[in-house]
Design brief:
The protein has 8 helices and 22 strands. It is an alpha/beta fold and 415 residues long. The strands form 5 sheets. Strands 6-21-22-20-19-16-17-18 form an 8-stranded mixed sheet, sandwiched between helices. Strands 1-2-3-5-4 form a 5-stranded mixed barrel. A 5-stranded mixed sheet has the order 7-10-11-12-13, covered by helices on one side. Helix 1 runs parallel beside helix 8 and helix 7 packs across helix 8.
Length: 415
């Protein structure tokens, strides 16, 4: 029989669970809140910590609220983790998590972290969803990661995505995943299929949308219309192909551009290095404020988009390099004044950070989608001769534990 424990929860932990202590051991409890007294069932127990399943909320927090989605919960959809927390409290807890990660993993006590900022509506913001196939229909991976939870509604879907999902009636043999994308500011929609055999197929749809098949190597194949859509951010239009990354929150992308530009304080004589540039979001938005932009991206599909977007914007001072970032840094001989890095979830890593530091940029703006990764890289950045000036968490992912951060580092000689 599983062991049942009653405990008081004290803070929110990275990854979404609330945290408390019992008999000297740290307990992590998903779907709970700090300040609550709860009854839990131990699921995993290690020497200094345990993961427990919430069984009863004995004393609820005043910040607890009723989830908006019928699919939310530990036995259902894993897409959201925080719908049980009212939105102002979500922002507060995200700020605390960033500060805690920078202190514990980065060794940066009292780090200058600003309060997490909302960037728009906390519902209906998600312009890109990936649905998985199951015998019972399309859905998200379940909270336990063991199966697919079929869904018929999703309150964080952008209205254009919800509309598209409601209109699609598709039965395709060997369908594994279905991605739906939309341009918030353009109204364009794109459906992306992933199948187990990579074989193109004919698709008949009676909708004004584009459809593409994503091959296993990341190459899109057009089925209907185009294998891309357009989105507008900060006054520029971006082509985003089926295989290219783009922010799932368009208002959040606007906020990122604003924050990055504010921290960089670009000047007309400078050369800006944009690492992991994707389709060119920051390169294009900042190009008119500097002398030159060198943009580096490993994905050939995203690089093709970046070239297209640079040309469409009429810019002649942006060089896009299709290369691994670590290797590209060994080939640069230009004087780099400022750097933007927007790496994937695993971060830049020590090798890239140290190579960047050897270029001696005056300012280094780091865009992070994981505060733990930011903290680990921040430690190396600081050890390499930079000071952390400020971190701004931006809530691009309401109702989830995910946190986007923009951090400014300045070379110590200039601090």
């Amino acid at each position: 029989m599983s062991q049942l424990v009653t405990l008081k929860l004290t803070q929110m932990a990275h990854g979404g669970p609330a945290m408390g202590r019992y008999q000297g051991k740290v307990f992590f409890v998903p779907y709970a809140l700090p300040g609550e007294t709860v009854g839990v069932e131990i699921e995993t127990s290690k020497k200094g910590w345990a993961r427990a399943r919430l069984r009863e909320v004995i004393e609820p927090s005043p910040e607890r609220t009723t989830p908006a989605c019928p699919h939310f919960g530990p036995d259902a959809c894993g897409g959201c983790q925080w719908q049980h927390i009212d939105y102002p409290a979500q922002l507060h807890y995200k700020t605390d998590v960033v500060r805690d990660q920078l202190a514990r993993l980065g060794g940066l006590n009292d780090a200058p972290v600003r309060p997490a900022r909302a960037v728009g509506d906390p519902w209906g913001y998600c312009n890109h969803v990936q649905l998985h196939s199951s015998p019972d229909g399309l859905g998200y991976v379940s909270a336990d990661g063991e199966r697919v939870e079929p869904i018929d509604t999703c309150p964080i879907m952008h209205p254009l995505i919800s509309e598209l999902y409601g209109e699609l009636d598709i039965e395709i043999e060997n369908l594994e995943r279905l991605s739906l994308r939309a341009g918030d500011n353009t109204g364009q929609q794109l459906v992306i299929f992933e199948t187990s055999d990579d074989e193109p197929f004919e698709l008949m749809v009676d909708l004004p949308i584009s459809c593409a098949l994503m091959l296993g190597d990341g190459t899109p194949v057009t089925l209907v219309g185009n294998d891309y859509l357009f989105e507008r951010v900060a006054g520029y239009q971006y082509r985003v192909s089926a295989g290219s990354f783009f922010q799932v929150n368009t208002g959040g992308a606007e906020a990122l551009v604003e924050s990055v530009a504010g921290y960089l304080a670009p000047r007309p004589h400078q050369t800006l290095l944009d690492l992991y540039c994707g389709v060119g979001l920051f390169s294009i938005a900042l190009a008119t404020q500097v002398a030159q932009v060198i943009a580096v991206e490993a994905s050939p599909v995203a690089v093709a988009d970046a070239h297209f977007n640079v040309e469409a914007a009429g810019l002649d001072n942006v060089q896009v390099i299709n290369h691994d970032v670590a290797q590209a840094l060994t080939t640069l001989d230009e004087r780099i004044h400022a750097v933007i890095a927007d790496p994937p979830r695993n971060g830049c890593g020590p090798e890239v950070v140290r190579r960047l530091a050897s270029l001696r940029p005056e300012r280094f703006v780091y865009v992070a989608c994981d505060p733990a990764t930011l903290a680990r890289d921040a430690r190396v950045i600081v050890e390499s001769g930079y000071s952390l000036v400020e971190v701004q968490p931006l809530d691009l992912f309401p109702q989830t534990y995910h946190i986007e951060c923009v951090a400014l580092f300045v070379r110590d000689a200039l601090a």
